[in-house]
Specification:
Layout lengths: L10 E5 L8 E7 L4 E6 L4 E7 L3 E7 L8 H11 L1 H7 L1 H13 L3 H32 L9
Antiparallel strand pairs: 1-2, 1-5, 2-3, 3-4
């Protein structure tokens, strides 16, 4: 099957736009082709409708009854350890790194640029040193005259 993530009850989604941007919610019910009913117990997002264009589906899915109450969703969320699993994903790590870069001050960006310059100089020096050693070892042996 080409698709792995479906819009379904219990699917955990990442909010990409709006006032709750960057938070996780659980889909509780599908309203129509464009909207879903969501609940975000960990992020303190009250139950309400959201457009599917504002959500990115994750690989996580909770098991709870169709249109379960907020209490049921919260129990399933805690039992599924969604927060811990989310923090381990590459996606969450990239989001955290992006937030960290955005929070850097002008001086922090300057220090980072200087540190990268030093790192790259060391890396280049090591590369050329290894290249030189490899070149010497590949030199063909001259045949001796008899």
């Amino acid at each position: 099957m080409p698709f792995e993530r479906f819009v379904q009850t219990g699917r955990v989604a990442y909010v990409s736009h709006g006032s709750n941007k960057g938070k996780l919610v659980a889909i509780v019910d599908v309203i129509d082709q464009n909207r879903v009913l969501v609940d975000g117990p960990a992020a303190k997002i009250p139950r309400g409708q959201m457009s599917l264009s504002n959500l990115h589906l994750t690989k996580f899915r909770l098991k709870f009854p169709f249109t379960g109450s907020t209490r049921v969703v919260r129990k399933a969320w805690e039992a599924g350890k969604i927060e811990r699993k989310w923090k381990e994903t590459v996606w969450a790590q990239k989001v955290a790194a992006k937030e960290k870069r955005a929070a850097l001050s002008d001086y922090d960006r300057f220090k980072l640029r200087k540190a990268k310059r030093v790192r790259n100089a060391l890396r280049t020096e090591a590369f050329y040193r290894l290249k030189k050693v490899a070149k010497k070892s590949k030199r063909p042996v001259k045949p001796t005259k008899k």
